[in-house]
């Protein structure tokens, strides 16, 4: 069991499994909703998303971009700090009140099992896991005390007020692919553009933060088509988590770990 940090910097985490398309999702949604409600996720909302495919037309040809509508369901807890997103090809579980990996993955796997029992999933083809950490130095301290030099870029070396700095590394270990980003900026804590549409409530301890800080965005995944098995998904999540933890520990200093412990 992982040890929970008393001042953990995690302000958002998300797990996802992509699986075979469920075109009749609307017919299964009531049963899925009822089971998730009984497990503590009573807040349900259905959204219709517009999707489109861009195709290259022959020279001189004209045509309209085909637009299709797909349903997406969200199932949140009463406090709106954790919840599931379900569409025709994926289930995600996300939270702004992260505990430890085992608790988070158990909740996700419970939800995935509920979906499987309703629709009988055939396979998964991508398993993913992503952490966002907020690195705000304590009063009188500075980012270099929290982050190792190789992710700081020109921070404190440019001679001016920093507006934005991004360091990104993409690597793979066996089947696990990891994208590790460190974004340094000045101002309130924010989310990456692709996550700004979430419906979760952000705890006040993060809402009140403002100033020079870094967001660590560690995103890992395994892309492989496999027959659906809950234990296999669990094993893949554990493998991804191990590599994300290594990336995180390579980014932060021992001082940071002591502050967050």
In short:
This is TIGR04255 family protein. With 261 residues, this protein is of the alpha+beta class.
Question: Which features does this protein show?
Answer:
9 strands; globular; alpha+beta; 261 residues
Account of the protein in words:
This is TIGR04255 family protein. It comes from Allomesorhizobium camelthorni. InterPro entries: CHP04255. 25% of the residues lie in helices and 37% in strands. With 261 residues, it is of the alpha+beta class. The chain has one domain. A nine-stranded antiparallel sheet has the order 2-3-4-5-1-6-9-8-7, with helices on one face. α1 packs across α2 (101-119) and α2 packs antiparallel against α4 (230-251). The longest helix has 22 residues, at 230-251.
Structural class category: alpha+beta
Work out the helicity level.
25-40%
Net shape? globular
Number of structural domains:
1
Topology (SSEs and partners):
Layout: E1 10-19, H1 25-38, E2 43-52, E3 67-76, E4 82-87, E5 90-95, H2 101-119, E6 123-135, E7 164-173, E8 176-188, H3 204-207, E9 210-227, H4 230-251, H5 254-260
Antiparallel strand pairs: 1-5, 1-6, 2-3, 3-4, 4-5, 6-9, 7-8, 8-9
């Amino acid at each position: 069991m992982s040890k929970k940090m008393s001042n953990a910097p995690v302000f958002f985490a998300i797990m996802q499994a992509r699986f075979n398309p469920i075109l009749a999702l609307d017919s299964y949604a009531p049963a899925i909703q009822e089971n998730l409600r009984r497990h503590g996720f009573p807040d349900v909302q259905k959204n219709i998303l517009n999707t489109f495919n861009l195709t290259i037309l022959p020279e001189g040809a004209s045509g309209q971009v085909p637009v299709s509508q797909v349903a997406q369901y969200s199932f949140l807890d009463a406090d709106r700090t954790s919840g599931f997103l379900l569409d025709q090809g994926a289930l995600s579980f996300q939270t702004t009140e992260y505990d430890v990996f085992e608790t988070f993955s158990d909740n996700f796997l419970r939800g995935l099992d509920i979906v499987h029992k309703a629709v009988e999933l055939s396979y998964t083809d991508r398993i993913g896991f992503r952490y966002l950490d907020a690195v705000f130095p304590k009063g009188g301290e500075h980012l270099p005390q929290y982050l190792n030099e190789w992710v700081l870029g020109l921070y404190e070396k440019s001679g001016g007020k920093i507006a934005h700095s991004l360091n990104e590394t993409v690597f793979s270990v066996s089947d696990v692919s990891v994208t590790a980003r460190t974004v340094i900026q000045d101002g309130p804590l924010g989310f990456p553009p692709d996550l700004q549409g979430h419906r979760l409530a952000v705890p006040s301890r993060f809402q009140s933060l403002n100033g020079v800080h870094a967001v660590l965005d560690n995103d890992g995944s395994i892309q492989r088509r496999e027959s659906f098995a809950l234990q296999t998904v669990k094993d893949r999540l554990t493998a991804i988590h191990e590599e994300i933890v290594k990336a995180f520990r390579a980014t932060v200093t021992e001082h940071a770990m002591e502050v967050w412990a």
